[in-house]
Design a protein that fits this description.
By secondary structure, this protein is an all-alpha fold. It is built from 16 helices and 3 strands. It binds coenzyme A.
Length: 384
């Protein structure tokens, strides 16, 4: 028996689990590419549909390919009545991420061949999920507030239609740009916890719906996708800009984590956070409410203090989740709905990783170093 304790990589930190050509995160220089295209270029020049195609197929679509892809997305947006009914039952009392997980899992019922893992069949299932998850999210938001379901509108683009379905009104040009930006920025981020969780499930050759359900469960936590909701809660708890420094200093002294800061890979400013921050500043020019102005003032003071205290010394910088909440509030979205938007966007990345992984599948099965007892004598229950 081997008794030499191996090096244990807690949280799989620094462990390479595969090769991938989907996205590259350069954590030292604060850069991100999807299929070789910089996130800044895609955010400025592309849209979510095109980015989803790029992630899934590995190349930008031609005009015909784009029309075919967006046509499929539009045709599949609506969700079955049974799914809406379950959302309606759960939404008033459950967190929207629990509703998302359950409703996404239900979609397997409508797939006649869920275990078909051929390339085309897999991509087709992913397209269905990309199409329907925003509708599930929007229906959850509506039913939480005891409002009517708004069916998708085929005349609108993917993310704009989501905003219309949840808010019940057509967004203006600036709002449309903001929601599409958030969908693009959240679409993919290599082997983060939820993508890895998707791959663990997919590696057992379970179906795409099972893998997606795993991903949603993993994304919920505040150390991962749930940080956007948690960060806005903290900004609200700070309350007024002048309370920012005191609140953060006390939280750090109490060894609390400041939500929306720090990252396993980025040891500098998250490039996605930079983009969100710049659009948030632009929204200040559009006659924002007092709430939005207050959020931004608090966020900027918190950002400065955190960078001064922990940025250069410990590599803890703002991540995308810090500014996401204030930006979603500009769009009138409630904080519990932030992470469901992350789900709807990240489906493109999760699906692309399933396609890539199944190309060279190997079941994920790491090992633990056992530190318990061996060969204990079994004592019957009446003698213990
Ligand atoms: C993202 C996160 C989970 C990464 O964790 P990680 O790579 O395992 O890093 P660690 O938890 O080992 O943290 C390293 C050190 O930085 C500190 N740290 C990390 N993030 C911190 C934060 N947000 N606030 C305060 N301190 C933080 C840790 O306390 C630890 O300090 P120590 O070395 O003195 O013990 C972590 O930064 C975090 O909890 N951030 C807040 C949640 C969040 O915003 N998540 C979204 C990420 S996109």
């Amino acid at each position: 028996m081997n008794t030499a304790k191996p090096t244990i990589n807690y949280g799989l930190e620094g462990i390479y689990v595969d090769e991938s050509s989907i996205s590259k995160v350069d954590g030292q220089n604060g850069k991100l590419w999807y299929r070789g295209y910089s996130i800044e270029n895609l955010a400025e020049q592309s849209n979510f549909e095109e980015v989803s195609y790029l992630l899934l197929y590995g190349k930008l679509p031609t005009k015909n390919e784009y029309d075919d892809f967006t046509g499929k997305l539009k045709d599949r947006r609506d969700i079955p009545k049974e799914v809406r009914d379950v959302i309606k039952v759960m939404a008033p009392t459950s967190h929207p991420m629990d509703v998302m997980r359950t409703a996404a899992s239900m979609l397997v019922m409508y797939d006649k061949d869920p275990n078909n893992r051929n390339l085309d069949a897999t991509i087709d299932k992913v397209i269905t999920l990309i199409a329907k998850l925003p509708t599930i999210a929007a229906a959850t938001g509506r039913f939480r507030e005891k409002k009517e379901y708004i069916p998708p509108d085929k005349s609108l683009g993917h993310s704009v239609n989501f905003l219309y379905m949840i808010n019940g009104k057509r967004p203006n040009e600036f709002e449309s740009k903001l929601i599409d930006l958030m969908f693009i920025l959240h679409a993919e981020h290599s082997t983060n916890a939820s993508t890895f969780s998707v791959l663990v499930t997919a590696s057992t050759l379970a179906d795409v719906y099972a893998a997606t359900t795993s991903g949603i469960g993993t994304l919920k936590g505040p150390l991962h996708g749930g940080a956007d909701e948690a960060a806005l809660k903290m900004i609200n708890a700070i309350g007024s800009p002048d309370n920012t420094e005191k609140y953060i200093e006390e939280a750090l002294e109490g060894k609390q984590r400041i939500m929306g800061f720090g990252h396993r890979v980025y040891k500098t400013y998250d490039p996605r956070a930079k983009l969100v921050r710049s659009y948030l500043e632009e929204s200040l020019e559009k006659e924002p409410s007092d709430e939005i102005k207050r959020h931004l003032q608090i966020a900027l003071r918190a950002e400065k203090l955190m960078i001064d205290k922990l940025g250069k010394s410990k590599g803890i910088w703002p991540n995308i989740d810090f500014f996401a909440g204030p930006l979603y509030r500009v769009l009138g979205i409630e904080s519990e709905m932030f992470t469901p938007i992350f789900v709807a966007s990240r489906m493109a990345g999760w699906g692309s990783h399933i396609v890539e992984y199944w190309n060279n599948n190997k079941i994920v099965r790491p090992v633990e170093w056992y530190i318990g007892s061996l060969d204990l004598p079994y004592v019957p229950i009446n003698k213990r």
